[in-house]
Amino acid sequence: MTPQLAFALLPDFVVATGALVILLLAAGRRDDDAAAARGAALGAVGVCAVALAAVALLAWRGTGDLLPPGAPLAADGFRWAADGVILVGTALCALLVGDGARRERPVAAETFALMLLSASGMMLLAGARDLVLVFLGVELTSIPVYVLAGLDRRSARSAEAALKYFLLGAFSTAFLLYGVALVYGATGATHLAAIAAASGQSALPPAVLWLGVGFMLVGFAFKVAAAPFHMWTPDVYEGAPTPVTAFMAAAVKAGAFAAFARVFLEAFGPAAGRWHQVLWYLAVLTMVGGNVVALAQRNVKRMLAYSSIAHAGYLTVALVTNTGQGSSAIVFYLFAYTLATVGAFAVLEALGGSAAGADRVDAWSGLYAARPRLAIAMAVFLLALLGFPLAGGMGFFAKWYVVQAALGAVNAAGQHVPQTRLAVWLVLASVVSAGYYLYLVSVMFMRPRAADAPELPATPRWTGGVIAACAALLLALGLYPTPAVRLSQAAALRPAAGSERAPTTIPGLPTSTALGGR
Question: In degrees, to the nearest 5, what angle opens at C-alpha 389 toward C-alphas 387 and 393?
């Protein structure tokens, strides 16, 4: 291993080492009287490991890509930004798990270790430039999450969620691996740059190559919960413990989308005309389907699950453009989405989670009268997910940049051909989402609290801190988004050789290229 590769892998090593340290510290200790305090302490170790990994990221942030284009791993701005989003989501969710250990019952030591191991897999996914590493990253990400989904051993729903996620996840991974095998058989390469160079050759067996791309698309669509491969999402999100649901909805989705974007932009970018139309319809189906079904939900967890599906569609819109601007919009959107999603689930956890019946919409009636700060914070998160200006803060700009990326597309001849219809579908889907986001806001602020409603528990310290931090960042970056915009600009993926076209300027995002619009 070269020193440059070791330095580039340092953040991943730090996170994985933190997981091993937690297991060693917890080995052989089964004193139930001190289990809650020990769980909280191990959570602190996990957060420290994430903080050290963030320091390692900052150490090579301004050094450019440390590795040559032929290396199996990238150390570019896109990986740095995606790793940063993953670490933020992991740290926030670890704090939620630690508070659960203090308030409710002991949390197994392996909980924090599994979260860190999964995070290290996501970080590997964000930088993988070889399909073998992509597969290893998917497995390292997924297997710990299968266990985390069934963490509550006393809950039949949690066991059901873990089993469904495992079976469907293994099935989708088989699709991904078979797609990798077919792409390798057609191109003779697993490195993304080599695949990009070979995919434009007429001598390749096109049926084998595009069948492989199709199988890989199915695998990635499952991992990001895109329709029609989303059916596991509501059941798993509902059955898993609330902090784990937040981890899956935020960090895991960020890692999966980072790999999705890098593989399709760097490896299959030169032949984007072949998969562009499929992703176009996939984005529309995911946006519309997720939002329409969410309207009928009266369980907050399932509502947020279908909301997560809809946001996968919005992110797919940015991917359809096949541009550096689209990849920048993906990073910006993932950061805003992570803050809003973790914050929303943190409020749900502060109200007692599923065990206290707080996942029912009726339980939120009159929340403003009983817990005004929680109600205001939840309103900020819901409006951010909606993309509402001002109160929605950063969420508005996230959707704005995705729309601008779609409108900045050019065709293969370098002519400006905006993805206008796709942008219109995004706006219409966002309007539909107002039906359930604003409904929950109205329940909190406009309905009276039931006379026989149980007394709400006190908000744990770290959970309250997570809620306050997420709300403050969303509002602050909504008023002054320049720092986040600059970071997303530095994270733009360069189009693969053969797919680069005439540049087009998008306000607030870097100039890059795009593919022909529909």
Answer: 75
